[in-house]
Amino acid sequence: MIRPEEVYCIGKFTRTHGVQGEMSMSFTDDVFDRTDCPYLVCSMDGILVPFFIEEYRFKSDNVALIKFERIDTNEAASIFTNKEVYFPKSYAEQAEDGEYSWQYFIGFTTEDTTHGHLGELVDVDESTVNTLFVVERPNGDEILIPAQEAFIEDIDHDKRLIKFNLPDGLLE
Questions:
Q1: Which CATH fold would you assign to the domain 106-164?
Q2: Rounded Cα distance, 56 and 66, in Å
């Protein structure tokens, strides 16, 4: 059984494409192209289910056409419309270039060298030029931290922990 903490969202199926079961996927992370993972994951009736990729091709920089095994008609593919697409974190760690998308870090615990425990990274805001980590504090408040490699001191993938060295005044 695939657990939610074992995957992260890399995109969404937007519509079917053609009549042979292809689907158009808008993605934020092309990790599926940089690893040997044979499947993508979708939530079906609240259960995370792996679907094996038969083939895929890129339509643009952020859209791919995906064909799953045993999904051979437009009708069969239509159940995926507007479904989020997840990728296993264990395969993401093996990506060819070793780079992760910012979404990969959702669910990580955060701490700062000066302020200690900050909270859980619950979202990534990429709506502006400067990407921001949304961190939920233990008291329920949210803080925004610039997703800048210069601020990241260490990442422990096993403990799912990001250690920051944030400039004075950023958290105030």
A1: SH3 type barrels. (2.30.30)
A2: 4
